[in-house]
Write a structure and sequence with these properties.
Blueprint: E1 2-7, H1 11-21, E2 26-33, H2 36-44, H3 57-60, E3 61-63, E4 77-80, H4 88-96, E5 100-102, H5 111-125, E6 128-130, H6 139-150, E7 155-160, E8 163-164, H7 166-173, E9 178-187, H8 189-196, H9 205-208, E10 209-217, H10 223-231, E11 241-246, H11 249-255, E12 261-271, E13 275-285, H12 288-308, E14 313-315, H13 330-336
Parallel strand pairs: 1-2, 1-4, 2-3, 4-5, 5-6, 6-14, 10-11
Antiparallel strand pairs: 7-12, 8-9, 9-10, 12-13
Helix pairs in contact: 1-12, 4-5
């Protein structure tokens, strides 16, 4: 059995708990959170049949600041479920010094620097850290690599949505005066059709997607300031046409409680005698957090196996055999999935 710890108990953390409960080769040994008392209440009210160590909740659920007590959880792999804007960049290196880790750090421009920091810490500690796992970055990263390898000279395009971006929603929630936020990424149909027709245009980010943000603001908040900070936020909103809409907390719960998402990677290129080839990979998700959590749990299995083999340092989904993600043996993979 692989002993798993969850760090952060928001949407992804809760989803990871459900996935682990249905995964035969894993058991959840602990949750590290900023709100341990609230999490304990949630767990006690949950399904009693879950496969978790619930005999002693004080041992099972730890405060994020109780660093000296983390090792007592007996965790093989810690799954980091916090936000990429402020949580993972700080928690990642700290936890990589103690455990094998998996995270979904998704600020694309900052991945190379984050990878280097995690690689240094994990190697020194003798641990494995799989970083930036999920569906993008993660699965879509792999699809872009495959398209680039198979269609030499081709161009790859990634379209997201229409759906809720957890990272962008979290970034908007960090703005002062925001109680809750839900950001929808919307692909621009004209751009999609041009690529599907075999064109290879050079798009700006603004030409490929637009962003729609629903905000529940604090009473008395300066709405113009909130809107300005969101629209001009570097690496998240400033390169897109962004619309900010203020709504009530009741409307947020009623209309925006689900987290659908999806998207596709298109690679267009020519082979041989100029034959047009188009590769398209699509995912369609009713729950972005649940699917992201499922990918993280599979990557936790890979991290555990790699560490048992004596490997250490940081890795992405591009850096290890895909068979490490599966609970099945190599023999079964070759006979059933090839």
């Amino acid at each position: 059995m692989i002993n798993i710890g969850i760090v952060g108990y928001g949407n992804i953390g809760k989803a990871a708990r459900k996935v682990i409960g249905k995964t035969p080769d894993m058991i959840l040994r602990g949750i590290i959170t900023r709100r341990p008392e609230q999490v304990k209440e949630e767990i006690l009210g949950g399904p009693s049949e879950e496969k978790m160590a619930l005999i002693n909740l004080d041992r099972y659920v730890l405060d994020l600041n109780q660093k000296r007590k983390w090792n007592r959880l007996g965790v093989d792999v810690a799954i980091l479920c916090g936000g990429s804007k402020e949580d993972t960049p700080v928690q990642g290196p700290e936890l990589a010094a103690r455990f094998n880790t998996v995270d979904s750090f998704d600020t694309h421009a900052d991945i190379p620097g984050y990878f280097q920091r995690m690689d240094s810490v994990a190697k020194e500690a003798g641990n494995v850290s799989i970083v930036s796992a999920g569906w993008d970055p993660g699965i879509f990263s792999l699809e872009r690599i495959l398209g680039n390898a198979f269609l030499t000279g081709g161009e790859s395009y990634t379209f997201w949505g229409e759906g809720v971006s957890q990272g962008h929603s979290d970034a908007a929630r960090k703005v002062k005066g925001v109680v809750d936020a839900r950001q929808y990424t919307i692909p621009i149909e004209e751009a999609i059709q041009r690529v599907r027709a075999g064109e290879t245009p050079e798009f700006s980010k603004r030409q490929m997607h637009k962003r729609l943000v629903f905000i529940v603001a604090e009473e008395g908040a300066d709405l113009e300031r909130v809107k300005k900070e969101i629209v001009e936020m570097p690496k998240y909103y400033d390169e897109y046409d962004t619309e900010v809409i203020f709504i009530s907390e009741e409307e947020m719960k009623r209309k925006h409680s689900a987290f659908p998402h999806g998207g596709f990677v298109l690679t267009s290129g020519l082979t041989g005698d100029g034959n047009k080839q188009i590769l398209e990979y699509k995912c369609q998700l009713e729950s972005n957090p649940e699917f992201t959590a499922s990918v993280l749990v599979a990557c936790a299995r890979a991290a555990y196996r790699m560490n048992k083999e004596g490997q250490s340092g940081a890795f992405t989904i591009l850096d290890f055999p895909l068979g490490y993600l599966s609970p099945h043996s190599g023999e079964i993979l070759r006979s059933r999935f090839m």
